[in-house]
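User: Show me sequence and structure for the first protein, then do the same for the second.

Assistant: Starting with the first protein.
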Amino acid sequence: MLTIGQLAAYAGVTVRAVRHYHQIGLLPEPERDASRYRRYGATAVVSLIKIRTLANAGVPLSQIGQMLEADASTFAEAVQRIDSHLRDEIERLESSRKQIAQLTAGDSLTLSPQVVSYLDRLRAIGASKRMVEAERDGWILVAARWPDRIIEWMPAKLAQLDDPQVVRLYRVLSEIFDSDAGEDALLEEAADIMAALVEQAYSSGDVLVDEAQDDLPDLLDALAVETDPRAERLRNLMRERGWSGWTRVERLAKPPG
């Protein structure tokens, strides 16, 4: 006859686990002997080993009791159900592991390689961290709405970064983003560059967003203002130069004022 500690050691579990199995009715609790100790026989050892084996295999404790009492065919069916559940759980965990692994991928978690390359080019031309992050968030919105058009647009976007005006624009915007001041002179310069670039784009017919009924341009404009409220001032400066906004850009019939 074994004490609870000896029983636990024999079956390879803890005393706490044995007591828990008693509490939930999974393992019968023997009467105490004359010395007020509980003593366990060979049957208890066999039962505890079965419980441990099923629990280690992933069988919920709530199902182990039924499985111990089941006949061979019922036991086999229960094992198949549990195996199917475990396969589904393994697939879910593997998918989670892949997603977690992607978290180390930075920008590539949500963006295509083409956009990631574009963001790398922005860093190379001197765009600040905040500027690149703002651009990245905008491209996340674009990719979610028009994923198939990214590859079509990116060669032209990359080519724009060879334009000294575009390089200067990103550097000016970076200075604005990284400053806590109003930076009126820089905002004026940014508006001048943007107006000139828009004029060139309109002259060549090269306009990135042309879906007039789509709400994404408005969302992108809103993102710019949410990222830095001074974007609203920049939009007003663009209007003074005869252009509405910077995403869905339209020439105003007559500049304000």
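Switching to the second protein now.
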Amino acid sequence: MNKLTIFLVFVFLQGCAQKPYYGDLTYLGKLPSKLSEISGIVSINNTTVWAIEDNGNKDHLYAINLEANLVKEFKVENAKNHDWEDLAKDEKGNLYIGNFGNNANDRKNLSIYKTPNPENETGKKIKAEKITFHYPEQKKFPPKKSKLMFDCEAFFYKNNFLYLITKNRTKPYTGKAFIYKIPAVVGSHEATLIGEFTACTDQQFCSVTGADISPDGKKVVLLGSGFIWLFTDFSSDDFTKGTLRTIDVKHRTQQESICFIDNNTLLIADEQSKTKGRNLYSYKID
């Protein structure tokens, strides 16, 4: 093998080594730096994706296109980002911001902010109304380590209710998530426990970090770091009683956001962690 051939092989191998691997996910684009801690996404018109960041970031709502470029930004008035963790939408395009991140399970001010359809808004600000709620099963703030069940990073809207899926932080870790629902109505509510779900018992991958329901209401997806749990054929509020399909997307990053853009296409976003993440991906359900 002559020197030129050796050099070309070296260049080829270097290029292969640097090419990122996304498993079964299709890479769409790199998110802007102001979304490095993206925690929730939702799509209203199938071409624009609305996004938020979590704890410690701005009280802002961002719009990106399907190439992950920032196209619009609102400051959300009458709202505070204590820990924004997910986004949902109703049939009118109103958005719901889940201000219910609760890592230490010690919060007594859990809330959800409702904004009008941002597609119809102009200017740089959008007003929010407030929904407050509590979990009746939580008696202590925080509870003992074996009962750290009241963090939440995932919800969706269906038929005038918001469905919340909690994130397990128990020690030892059990992986169990509670399914709650509350009315999608401004005011104060007691959350109703309607079911439980255990994905698996590996804390690194099995905690639920995002959720959405398909436009036709026939599919619910939950997200973990590298896994999608797809529920179909459900007939009650407790969608976990339906048929479950576990999907390994074969890509291990801090994936915290998921939404449908049609009945069979999902978008997923991951937070930046060192040199990985801060990307927008798509996934096609077979």
